[in-house]
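Record 1 of the preview.
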Amino acid sequence: MFDTGSTGFMLLATSLVMLMTPALAFFYGGLANRKNILGIMIQSFVSLGITTVLWFILGYSLCFSGTGAIIGNLDKAFFMGINSTTPFTNGQIPEFVFIAYQMMFAIITPALITGAFTGRVTFKSYLIFLVLWQILVYYPFVHMIWGGGILQQWGILDFAGGIVVHITAGFAALASVFFVGKRKNTKLQPNNIPLVAIGTGLLWFGWYGFNAGSELSVDHITVTAFLNTDIAASFATVTWLIIETIKTGKPKFIGLMTGAVAGLATITPAAGYVPVWAAAVIGIIASIVSYIAVEWKNKRGWDDALDVWGVHGVGGFTGTVLLGVFASKTLNSAGADGLILGGTSFFFKQVFISVIAAIYAFAFTYIMLWLINKITRVRVTKEEEEIGLDSSIHDEEAYA
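->
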């Protein structure tokens, strides 16, 4: 009944995307200071549990059922009316596989935000944030762009989550930085760079499932998205290394890894819609733009501890705009022609939605944190921050 090749590949892609959340925990955990390793890692791991529960109860239904312009309905709450033989709309895979694949996206997206406010937010407030942010920010954008909503009907394209994942998470991170405020000590150093390297490697590995799997079948687009992912990440890695070596006189390992993630985030919206040569250009631009954003953030004194905005927010924004430049219907008939092929209208649509998504995610996140703070304290006390969240909140130590 189903295409076994596509079904098998999608199960593998789903597993790869699941692996990205622990990978993110390693990446952030290594970058965090010694007193906040577990505090940042648990924020990623807890999303594996809470988001799955939420997805089962109402998340999948709000994203992928109904014909609403902005949000779906509850027709598929608790996966009602779906079983192991129910086909997904393309007829090649079971809907259960699609449910699981999209669930992994829902799990990692709010976890991305946590790197911005590491060491400063109470666990209770984060749990409330984790639930509300998905319902009020993530689910509407999934439905509008991938679930048949207004933006999909308008012709907006986002192959694997430049808007849905990276712009929303990146600009939500920036809002959280403004609301929570600076750390008392911003000079604390990463505690374990090899752990960052493990996280980066696993993120890069998982990103093949993230991007290539978004075709939801196995065909020439799948192969293109896979190769584009690696090409963009590699060019971004080299570009960041060159920029930082010229600027500081030293080739920095953390910079190299940051460039890789910037390239991966930036190619995400365009992976299945642009030719391979364009992926190389996107990778180069990704590092240049994200490096400038991080430097500018530092000069402004914004304490985005792990550069979530500069890498994911700016990367997702840049990739979505560049999709409007390089997209080709010859490559993918389900896509559009970008600016260089005469698609002026499509280009401006991509720019417009990037701006709207950034503003929406920023504003709703800030308001949400303000409301949560009325219920329970969002920022930790001075004493808790000084001791570190590992001991003060979780009563554990990473390195006993």
